[in-house]
């Protein structure tokens, strides 16, 4: 989910609505506020659900996990655009990142990348949501917290050489999330699950909803699903990777249908969305 939200299927330059609920997800590495106008654009295309990153992992010169400081404004914009079903996802800190190419090695080595404990990370996210008001006093309400379980070389997370530690870390996150009494689920794909836990059939909590990543471009939740982790069917499916559309600034400038210029000239209103269906 390296940058996560088209609710519509593009066929020969036409948008065709699909009679299902789609998830709009903000690309997690963007750390960019999605504008109100962009959320309005997405809503007008038929999306009914928004999933916004609230916590990010450790990578490059960033410390070991923290609140995504773009979450509150993106959430506010989604609410004001008419979204009533909004989830949050957290990309947890579970490793020590590699030095980035642009960083001097001494600086990277000297930086403290130690991850907070799973309990501290979950507490930080929940407290931020509980203690934040929007629009002059409105509570932030999220339907589900999604724990993003995937490998990411830039954050050097989930050490493949210690799957027993990874299993314990996942159990610690489960304990922390269970303690919130909030709805929560897992975002993962079979290959990552097998690599991280050492066993594709290892079960954390198959009673929790699964949002599976399977970029087959097929708008069907169960098609091409490989059972893993005790899940026999997923709750949701991310079926297409990063797509650029509804790139609108607050003043309405930009493009609704395509943002091809984002690839060569990224700007403040260049958003990448992954397509999902629930």
UniProtKB/TrEMBL annotation:
PROSITE patterns found in the cross-reference section: GLYCOSYL_HYDROL_F25_2
Hydrolase as UniProt keyword: yes
SUPFAM superfamilies hit by this protein: (Trans)glycosidases
Keyword Hydrolase belongs to the record: yes
UniProt family annotation: Belongs to the glycosyl hydrolase 25 family.
Signal sequence residues: 1-23
InterPro entries listed in its UniProt record: GH, GH25_Enzymes, Glyco_hydro_25
Keywords in alphabetical order: Hydrolase, Signal
Gene Ontology terms: biological process: cell wall macromolecule catabolic process; peptidoglycan catabolic process; signal transduction
Gene Ontology MF term list: lysozyme activity
Annotated protein name in UniProt: Glycoside hydrolase family 25 protein
Domain of life where this protein originates: Eukaryota
Organism of origin: Rhizophagus clarus
